[in-house]
Specification:
The protein has ten helices and six strands; from the N terminus they run βαββαβαβαβαααααα. By secondary structure, it is an alpha/beta fold.
Length: about 210
């Protein structure tokens, strides 16, 4: 019998994931918990797979992943992302994530993905694989993006998606002056003059979807 832990702050999304799991693994035991409630007590049981949506703040996601691995070194982690972002996909794969799915994944694909991960293999959704393959075939380079810090990548991604400075402040808990500083650094490092150019650069380099 499989045991799954869903880590999700949105009850509707947690219920959907739980429904998918119940369909594919009828005898499984499924528990869900909100990310801010994750602690040693909630992780006292080892699970066959941990499933959660990754947010825009990479450092928060990294801390959660590290806490899971600290508790269970061979943990199988499956994450959902908003889009086929190859930069962050590579980041999470290097962090040890076994499944990386976009949030438009179908129920059948989700069940297949969980089965693959339970078999100790890595699963990437089709759009993620397509984006990574395109990078390889077209010999795209991430050198320019690699000069950005993790926080700068976060802010660049949010800016390219059209979020305002105030919205970024609210999500990242940064002061408005700090966001302005990051924005200036990003523009300088990537040699872009405005948000339109940043959006184009981010799309071409698979930081955001087109």
């Amino acid at each position: 019998m499989y045991h799954f832990l869903i880590i999700e702050k949105q009850p509707v999304i947690a219920a959907g994931i739980k429904s998918f799991l119940a369909t594919g693994f009828p005898s499984a035991k499924i528990k869900d918990v909100q990310p801010n409630h994750i602690n040693e007590l909630s992780l006292k049981q080892e699970f066959d797979a941990y499933i959660f949506s990754i947010g825009l703040v990479v450092s928060d996601n990294d801390e959660l992943i590290q806490n899971i691995f600290k508790h269970q070194s061979d943990a199988r982690i499956i994450v959902f992302a908003n889009e086929a972002n190859t930069i962050f996909a590579k980041h999470y794969l290097r962090a040890g994530v076994k499944g990386y799915l976009s949030k438009n994944t179908t129920k059948n694909e989700f069940i297949s993905a969980v089965a693959v991960v339970l078999d100790n293999k890595v699963y990437l959704s089709d759009d993620i694989k397509y984006a990574l393959t395109s990078d390889f075939i077209e010999n795209k380079t991430t050198n320019k993006l690699s000069i950005l810090s993790k926080r700068e990548l976060e802010v660049a991604s949010m800016l390219a998606k059209g979020l305002s400075n105030n919205e970024i402040c609210e999500i990242t808990k940064l002061h408005s002056s700090s966001v302005g500083t990051y924005k200036a650094r990003i523009f300088q490092k990537l040699n872009v003059k405005n948000i339109i150019e940043l959006r184009h650069f981010a799309t071409v380099n698979n930081l955001v979807s087109g």
